[in-house]
């Protein structure tokens, strides 16, 4: 696991965008367009805005052929609901990058086929050749995707019940900052084992509210009580943090020194 402590949330977004663009260019040059895994929480939005700004400035790579897979999807929202994660990622990123809707994928929450939705999504990812780079956020309780504390480290895509804490965290997206009443109780989410199959994991965290969860994930024991700690098992996991999110790391000076001395050509 590589931990990259930066000064600001803007720095986090820029480095994450650099990393995504480098992959897209590299895979395009090889003739095999990239497959991106996308998170739809609040933290990655700055990275997505940075990618769109670069496209507007004419400096971005072509996203021709790129396919995307969302981490998760709410269950129980009406079709086309603006807070569905498929609608969100199209609005916040993929439409602006000119990625056609048919190449933008998410778990299918259709009620009639819900019992097999996880298996279908796993097969879709396999059929695409697997995810090259998975963008991740981290919850204040250490969850990734919607794998809440206690989730199996061997879990695959499946339906999960959201905790009251996570529903409160997401209430702001439904126009009620402190009232989770309108937030769905269930989601379909990639499992921890599904996430760990991606070629490169890019976990982004900003703000002091995430500091305890980051410290547990990066420096604590690997445990289902902190699902993000499973990233310690991955051979290519990058954790990009601003000052606030990094503030409770005990080896912070070490991470800063390693990043400062890293060869420019190496990247993440």
What does it look like?
- By secondary structure, the chain is an alpha/beta fold.
- It contains eight helices and ten strands.
- It has helices spanning 9-29, 45-57, 85-94, 117-127, 164-170, 192-196, 211-219, 252-260; strands at 2-5, 35-38, 67-70, 72-75, 104-105, 133-136, 158-161, 186-189, 200-205, 237-241.
- Strands 1-10-9-6-2-3-5 form a seven-stranded parallel sheet, with helices on both faces. The protein has a three-stranded antiparallel sheet with strand order 4-8-7.
- Strand 2, helix 2 (45-57) and strand 3 form a beta-alpha-beta unit.
- The radius of gyration is 18 Å and the shape is globular.
- The mean pLDDT is 95.
């Amino acid at each position: 696991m590589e931990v990259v402590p930066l000064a600001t949330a803007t720095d986090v977004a820029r480095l994450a965008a650099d990393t995504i663009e480098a992959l897209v260019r590299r895979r395009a040059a090889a003739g095999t367009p990239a497959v991106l895994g996308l998170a739809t929480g609040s933290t990655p939005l700055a990275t997505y805005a940075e990618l769109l700004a670069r496209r507007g400035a004419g400096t971005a790579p072509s996203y021709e052929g790129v396919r995307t897979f969302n981490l998760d999807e709410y269950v129980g929202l009406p079709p086309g609901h603006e807070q569905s994660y498929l609608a969100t990622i199209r609005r916040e990123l993929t439409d602006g990058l000119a990625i056609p809707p048919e190449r933008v994928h998410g778990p299918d929450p259709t009620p009639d086929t819900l019992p097999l939705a996880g298996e279908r999504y796993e097969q879709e990812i396999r059929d695409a050749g697997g995810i090259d780079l998975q963008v991740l956020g981290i919850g204040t309780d250490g969850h990734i995707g919607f794998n809440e504390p206690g989730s199996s480290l061997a879990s695959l895509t499946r339906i999960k019940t959201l905790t009251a804490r996570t529903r409160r965290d997401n209430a702001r997206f439904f126009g009620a900052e402190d009232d989770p009443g309108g937030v769905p109780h269930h989601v379909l989410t990639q499992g921890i084992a599904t996430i760990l199959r991606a070629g490169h994991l890019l976990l982004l965290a900003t703000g002091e509210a995430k500091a305890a969860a980051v410290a547990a994930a990066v420096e604590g024991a690997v445990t289902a009580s902190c699902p993000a700690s499973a990233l310690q098992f991955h051979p290519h996991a990058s954790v990009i943090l601003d000052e606030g999110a990094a503030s409770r790391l005990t080896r912070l000076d070490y991470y800063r020194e390693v990043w400062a001395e890293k060869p420019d050509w190496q990247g993440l």
